[in-house]
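With this grant's support, we have paired protein sequences with backbone structure tokens. One protein thus recorded is set out beneath this paragraph:

_____
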Amino acid sequence: MAVTVAQAGNATNVVPDQAVLSGSVRTLSAAFRHQAEERLMTLAAEAPEGLSVAMQYTRYYPPLVNDDAATAFACKTAAGLTGDTRVDGQSAPHFVAEDFSYMLRACKGCFLFLGQGDGPALHNDRFDLNDAIAPAGASFFAKLVEDRLNR
């Protein structure tokens, strides 16, 4: 869970009568997503005496879960272009909130990261797209389609 917005008052010498916290919850499975929601609702209901809490939990993107076979296929194609040492098909799961998760519920596929390099990640105010990776990315996606059609 990330609290990404905190709003309370607008004067430096007045204690505000309310505060609003907003953020996002990202999980690796639908089951844990449900547990996280239940736990947050329980915490809100158990607020200390004198404190009232109103909670709104909106489910946006579902967990993004890659298909193993599609991931292996994409890794094989990438390795054919760049060599095995430049492809990591076993990286730790990432807590991404992505509309592509809806696509993966409808058909098999995989979400991947394409050579952005070190530095701040997407959704960070210091993120800077590595434009130099565009030709390699275009080659990868063209080869992926070619390999899929020739299967």
